[in-house]
Amino acid sequence: MGDDSIGGRLSEFIGNLGGFLRKFIFSVLSVGPIPNHIAFILDGNRRYAKKHNLKEGDGHRAGFVALLSMLKYCYELGVKYVTIYAFSIDNFNRRPDEVQYIMGLMHEKIEGMLKEESFVRSYGVRVHFLGDLKLLHQSVRIAAEKAMRVTANNTKFVLLICVAYTSTNETVHSVHQCFKEKRRPMDKFQEEEQQQQQQGLIKLVDLERNMYMALAPDPDILVRTSGETRLSNFLLWQTAFCYLYSPAKLWPEISLWNLVWSVLNFQRAYPYLLKTKMKRY
Ligand SMILES: *[C@@H]1O[C@H](CO)[C@@H](O)[C@H](O)[C@H]1NC(C)=O
Ligand SMILES: *[C@@H]1O[C@H](CO)[C@@H](O)[C@H](O)[C@H]1NC(C)=O
User: Fold this and answer.
1) Which one of 4, 43, 58, 206 is the catalytic residue?
2) Which of 195-199, 219-223, 247-251 has the lowest mean pLDDT?
3) Which atom from ligand 2 is nearest to the alpha carbon of 89?
4) How many angstroms is it from 153 CA to the middle of ligand 1?
């Protein structure tokens, strides 16, 4: 037996041990309530690159690797929805070469998603892209639309990717949609009904139904890395009763323990969150 295969077996053994440990930890966590939906603000890729003397692009690539691990952990834990803030409308104001680079990387990763051996394909993930998608570079938009089409029948796990997104824009979008709905030509009966309801022409349920995020229940946990404690126009509407967690680590450094810690804290806050959620109207 050569050294290579011993080394290979050893790393496989350690890998399995890691998987076993993880399973054990997750089964302990599962005694309590498991969050249905976790949202992430992936903050710190650029700082990570600076810290390790890498090119800025390599920071984003390291961030993508961290994202894949985190998605797998969430899946194994039984979280059904994950939302990530990949690119905000404001990010289009960054240096043109950086925007160009990120668009290129996004394109590459979306294409990668559709390959046989990818996380999306092998775990049966449904992918949604949300935001003002017409702002994306055309090649990225086409790839994103294809990814949504191809994964439309997957049900096991739902990944919502906010690109060209801000909460304020989502709200404006929703209001526009509500108006469009209400202005549709009506028959006599509907007109009478509407006159009765004129006080509240647009209701809370209308607004919520027309949000991009209507595809998922509100998040239970929002994680923002790099110790930043701002929401930066992300899911403002949906986080009214959400547990917020902001570890000091930069995004590419985020680990299993951060996830475990956030779930433990969510579980501790759960009775309170449940009570306040009930009061929502
Ligand atoms: C999804 O399911 C529908 C109805 O069963 C089918 O017509 C469609 O081709 C499927 N789409 C994909 C991408 O598999
Ligand atoms: C925001 O939302 C509105 C309404 O849907 C849309 O018309 C507008 O183009 C969006 N984008 C920006 C960058 O404001």
Assistant:
1) 43
2) 195-199
3) 13
4) 6
Q: Please state, in angstroms and rounded to a whole number, the distance separating the CA atoms of residues 137 and 141.
A: 6
Average pLDDT, stretch 229-236? 96
Cα of 169 vs centre of ligand 2, distance in Å, is: 6
Q: Which of 91, 169, 181, 207 to mutate to test the pocket of ligand 2 (most atoms within 8 A of CB)?
A: 169
Domains and CATH numbers, the chain: 33-167+218-280 (3.40.1180.10)
User: In the structure encoding, which two tokens stand for residue 190, read together?
Assistant: 């509907």
pLDDT on residue 87: 93
In whole angstroms, give the CA distance from residue 231 to residue 239.
Answer: 9
Q: What are 181-203's pLDDT values in tens digits?
A: 887 666 666 666 666 555 557 88
Torsion (CA) 115, 120, 124, 125 in degrees, nearest 10: -140
User: Using a 6 Å CB cutoff, which residues line ligand 2?
Assistant: 89, 132, 169, 172-173, 176
Q: In this prediction, what percent of the chain has a pLDDT beyond 90?
A: 75
Mean pLDDT of the chain: 90
Predicted confidence (pLDDT) per residue in 94-117, tens digit: 999 999 999 999 999 999 988 888
Beta strands of 213-261 (E only): which ranges?
Answer: 221-224, 243-245
- Asked if residue 152 has its Cβ within 6 Å of ligand 1, the reply is yes
Matching residue, tokens 């104001």: 93
| Alpha carbon distance 152, 131 (integer Å) | 18
pTM: 0.88
187 counts as catalytic: no
